[in-house]
Amino acid sequence: MKSPTIRIGTRGSQLALWQANWVKQALEALDPDLEAELCVIKTSGDKILDVPLAKVGGKGLFVKEIEQALMEGTIDLAVHSMKDMPGQTPEALCIGAIPERETPFDVLIAKEGRRFTELPRGAHIGTSSLRRASQVLHLRPDIQVHPLRGNLDTRIKKLETEALDAIILAGAGVRRLEMEHVISETLDPALILPAVGQGALCIEVRKDDAAIHQRIAPLEHEVSTRTVSAERAFLKRLEGGCQVPMAAYGQIRAGTLHLDGMVAETDGSVMHHRRVSGPVENAGALGQELADILIAMGADKILARLSEEGHL
Question: How far apart, in whole angstroms, are the C-alpha atoms of residue 246 and residue 238?
């Protein structure tokens, strides 16, 4: 009997389509009789292009409409960039699988191939993220940060058209679209800590759809799931969004999970940054522990004020 067609919900950007096609091909490779089709859904984040994300809600702007289609049954699964996912999913949905993670790090694309330390005083940097901006300003208060929206190609072109000295992007997208040649420097997490889940894909499904759960199970990557789960526990405890100066990065070495976390003022004047370590089996608890440490340092006061200002 021929397998049914699986409908995969995705945004329509070049990168989102690459990601959804990767999942489509992986599922079809597992079952040669399976047919999968992409269903492109335009999200609020795709429609609002002339306003910084921090001013229009940030977290969830790139997933809400896709999640609605999933709950209504017009698609069977959704493929997101994990860094776009809020800390909590709707009650009827869940993260079904996290495939192997691409690089989680940010990259600098600069004129004349300059590295971050080589940028001139007062340099103009474009970035779509308050997380990146706050860390850049903490390191270099002299730098001028400019909002940067649009797809990957658009952002790279703005390096020239908007008289910028450099831009900062997620390295995963640059690598997936085979544009590594434009990278000036991969930014060490000691300089710029990545976003929660950056570089990972999220396959979101309905909780009660046992058949889809079974199909996507082989795509799960254990190490990626452990580290991302720790980062997301940190995010959930702090109730933060992708447009808040917050970051977390987990890595596993010799059976131990090390998790770095950061919350900062938007201008970089204050930064709370700590690391916790523990057994990989305690990923969620480590994320919560790290969040509680930063809360005790004053991170909750920063987030409370940003919430009042509409960033959360």
Answer: 9
d(CA 302, CA 247) in angstroms, rounded, equals 14
pLDDT along the chain (312 residues), means of 10: 83 95 97 95 67 55 91 98 92 98 98 96 94 96 92 87 94 95 96 97 98 98 98 90 81 97 95 97 97 95 80 53
Provide the residue ranges of all domains of the chain, joining segments of one domain with +.
1-100+200-220, 106-186, 222-312
Q: Which CATH superfamily is domain 222-312 in?
A: Porphobilinogen deaminase, C-terminal domain (3.30.160.40)
Architecture, CATH, for domain 1-100+200-220? 3-Layer(aba) Sandwich (3.40)
Contact 197, 228 (CB under 8 A): yes
234 CB neighbour count, 10 Å cutoff: 32
What amino acid is encoded at 242 in this protein? C
Residues tagged active-site: 84
CA distance 72 to 11: 17
Residues 149-174: pLDDT tens digits?
A: 888 888 988 998 888 999 999 999 99
CA-closest candidate to residue 30, choices 3, 70, 7: 3
Q: Which residues contact 94 (CB under 8 A, 6 or more apart)?
A: 204, 205, 206, 207
Other CB atoms within a 10 A radius of the CB of residue 124 amount to: 17
Same fold, 1-100+200-220 and 106-186: yes
- In this structure, whether the domain defined by 106-186 belongs to CATH 3.40.190.10 is answered with yes
**CA 99, CA 225: separation in Å to the nearest integer?**
8
CB 185 within 8 A of CB 115: yes
- Rounded Cα distance between 84 and 88, Å, is 12
